Amino acid sequence: MKTEKISRKIGEMDGSVLARFEEGHAGGATLFEMVSFLGRLGIAVSGPTVRKYVQTGLLPRSRRIGAKGKHQGSHGVYPAWCVRRIVEIKRRLGEGSTIEEIAGGSMPIQADCMQAAELLERIEEKVARQRERRAARGGRLAEMQRLVGEARRLVLDAAGQTAGPSGVERFAM
Questions:
Q1: What residues does 170 pair with on adjacent strands?
Q2: What is the spatial distance between Cα 7 and Cα 13, in angstroms, rounded to a whole number?
Q3: pLDDT tens, 34-75?
Q4: Contact predicate 81/114, CB 8 Å
Q5: What is the predicted pLDDT for the residue at 3?
């Protein structure tokens, strides 16, 4: 009964709700932000559950971001698309799939492709900044930027990605 209720909520969910979360958290979201957001949507997920998804390769590891200020430590930030991924995992679980079955499919490969695309995007941004600083040597950097951009597009194609109206890339479901 509980899984039917979750499946119904997920089925009724408007994709724009997830897109707004992704746009609002373009730099990433903390575990607390993701769990709170999903809870407001009526999808119960806990920190240990998210960590289990990371362990099975369904979600990427968080990256550590230093808090501003002296001796403030750091916190983990997940890509915003992880919320959409958690919703998809919950949907499949509601349909009767096991975590092992889901992890044995293409989801871990898609997660790796998404991480590769994010890395390539950061490289592309660095190259663009270098080009601005060194306009005289722009020829080599322009070619590098073009190749990195093409690599990112190919990785996104491999992951089955589409770009939303704001340019935020998200999973095509």
A1: 162
A2: 10
A3: 999 999 999 999 999 999 999 998 998 888 776 676 666 767
A4: yes
A5: 53
For residue 1, the model assigns a pLDDT of 47
Residue 127 to residue 130: CA distance in whole angstroms: 5
DSSP secondary structure letters along the chain: -HHHHHHHHHHH--HHHHHHHHHHTTT-B-HHHHHHHHHHTT----HHHHHHHHHTTSSPPPEEEEPSSTT--EEEEB-THHHHHHHHHHHHHHTT--HHHHHTTTHHHHHHHHHHHHHHHHHHHHHHHHHHHTGGGHHHHHHHHHHHHHHHHHHHHHHTEEE-TTS-EEE--
Sign of CA dihedral 76, 80, 86, 92: negative
For residues 87 and 82, what is the distance between their CA atoms, to the nearest angstrom?
9
Q: Which amino acid is at 83?
A: V
Whether the full predicted model's pTM is greater than 0.90, yes or no, is no
Which tens digit of pLDDT belongs to each residue from 13-33?
Answer: 667 888 899 899 988 899 999
- The domain limits of the chain are 1-105, 106-165
Does 8 have pLDDT greater than 80?
Answer: no
Residues in CB range of 90: below 8 A, 6 or more apart = 6, 10, 43, 45
